[in-house]
Specification:
Blueprint: E1 4-10, E2 17-23, E3 29-34, E4 41-49, E5 54-61
Antiparallel strand pairs: 1-2, 3-4, 4-5
Protein name: Molybdopterin-guanine dinucleotide biosynthesis protein A
Pfam families: Zn_ribbon_21 (PF14255)
InterPro entries: UCP037225, zinc_ribbon_bacterial
Length: 67
Amino acid sequence: MRNYTEKFVPCPHCGHSISVTLDASNGDQEFYDDCPACCNAIHFNMMVNEQLDTIELVVDADDEQIF
């Protein structure tokens, strides 16, 4: 599995396409980044499946999370 991969995702606030470089070497991760277009916080949840050699990325606005 390559440790680094680039994905393009839409901002959940404004729809702007964002390039995200993901580092799968540390396994599953949860992080935040700001949209370069509208400056709102974006919540990223990355899940690494080493057996299938895949990375799943879930993107949402912070206000959409259910606790």
